[in-house]
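Wait, can you check?
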Amino acid sequence: MLSDRAAHFAALSDDARAFRHYIQSERGLAANTLSAYGRDLDRFCGWVAGGGLADYLAPSLRDLTHYLEFLRAEGLAPPSIARHIVSLKVFYRFLRLEERTTENTVELLSSPTLWERIPHVLSPESIVKLLEAPQPLDRFFLRDRAILETMYATGGRASEVVGLMLADVYLDSGFCKCFGKGNKQRIVPLGRMAVNALRAYLEGQRPRLTRAAPDAPWVFASRGGRALTRVMLWVLVKKYVRRAGLNAKASPHTLRHSFATHLLAGGADLRTVQELLGHSNIRTTQQYTHVDRERLLAVHRQFHPRGKTSEPEA
């Protein structure tokens, strides 16, 4: 049996691997950026393994200050230390997004210039362009359209969409079951457009894709009935993002964030969005979503006693 220390480091190693996969498949960062984050995280993991941190999921500010002292002792220049801080912040934002921790002490660390990734959101008009990007001449037109519609309708994580099973889709009732982190189950409505796209795919194309594996349980299949992977999904989304002429930063993660943001902009309350996203802690939802400024202004104008604008009385 692993010792507590060994188990702790094994968990960190798993999180580090998941982070690397996330920034490569979901974020699509440049190769140099991926390499830099990887090196920085390796140095952090090595420091933790050497006894620098008792619990990486709950670091104190003193712990993190000791890490900065370690970096200085390694002879790193201030710009390199600043980059390590950025890498560490991005890693902990990922851990919070994945609900591995709610700790944000790392945000208190300062560096000369901090890079903060603002989640990219597509406008409703851009979403329409993306959903309409698959065309009948595309080889997997019905499947690809159903995938995009499902991703936007449910706000599902990439892993949840590729892992969606036939037994968990209820088209007549208009909902599906999603299994998130820790195998937590939630019910998510599909909506008319997603239901129609799924039905067209399941009846018109999936039987041909799964001819060699008729008992394949997953909804979205590749040739030969194999399950799609997260990387394959990322490539698929990127293909249609380019075709639609949208921001190249858009990814599967962008559809999830757009789903939540559009719900909030349309008037949904934060608790509802929390439930639909499958977050166990509403603070994760607050970090993950934002309400557009125009809606905030509109609410203020509508409900605040002095929010309305009018001509002054004579």
